Amino acid sequence: DQQVKQNSPSLSVQEGRISILNCDYTNSMFDYFLWYKKYPAEGPTFLISISSIKDKNEDGRFTVFLNKSAKHLSLHIVPSQPGDSAVYFCAASVTGNQFYFGTGTSLTVIP
Amino acid sequence: EAEVAQSPRYKITEKSQAVAFWCDPISGHATLYWYRQILGQGPELLVQFQDESVVDDSQLPKDRFSAERLKGVDSTLKIQPAELGDSAMYLCASSHRGLITADTQYFGPGTRLTVL
């Protein structure tokens, strides 16, 4: 049973516009969430995290929003750049336990 | 910047052969993870170490997979015998503490295994 879901396998956005990647989870005990970016033939690279005590965390062009009541988080990238084209994974955990990953969303930023 | 090291980057083997992957985590990171990622899916945890001890290997197919982290630093994941369905990316990650506090995992570049 998939505890973390990314229902959009792909997303295309024009350069300079906002990219919004979504992630849903089923386990209400999850309290720590991560976003990773992955290029082909490389390991995932950590982007940004959020704890369940917050509803927003921002780092430069990247902002993660957490809606605990809806069990939903999203990653906003603004402005989007061609170098942002990659597969993005969200991951969730109960502190101290394993992370569960979504299936990824492939983002293409069109110049 | 400290990185998680993995080798080899690519491995091609025939089914029924033995393969081994090596991981060196970021210095000082107590927790080490091995994941398997099948194309089109997210990483799935195989085994988690805290120092030299296994804390979670519930998803490790123990009839053919084994993992060790003898000195609590680097780790080896072995498959014997390899099967066609083992073809995947094997990722190693490490984190500073992991068990007590929420902590980010940092991934290595992975080993791409192809079983023929």
Compact description:
The complex is a heterodimer of chains A (111) and B (116). By secondary structure, chain A is mainly beta.
Describe the structure.
The complex is a heterodimer of chains A (111) and B (116). Chain A is built from no helices and eleven strands. Chain A is mostly beta strands and 111 residues long. The N and C termini of chain A lie far apart (38 Å). Chain B is mainly beta and 116 residues long. In chain B, the strands form two sheets. In chain B, strands 2, 4, 5, 6, 9, 10 and 11 form a seven-stranded mixed β-sheet that branches. A four-stranded antiparallel β-sheet of chain B has the order 1-3-8-7, with no helix packed on it. Chain B is globular. The termini of chain B are far apart. The relative contact order of chain B is 0.33. The model of chain B has no long low-confidence stretch (mean pLDDT 92). Chain A binds chain B through residues 4, 31-32, 34, 36, 41-46, 49, 51, 89, 91, 93, 95-99, 101-104, and chain B through 4, 6, 33, 40-45, 48, 56, 91, 93, 98-102, 104-110, 112.
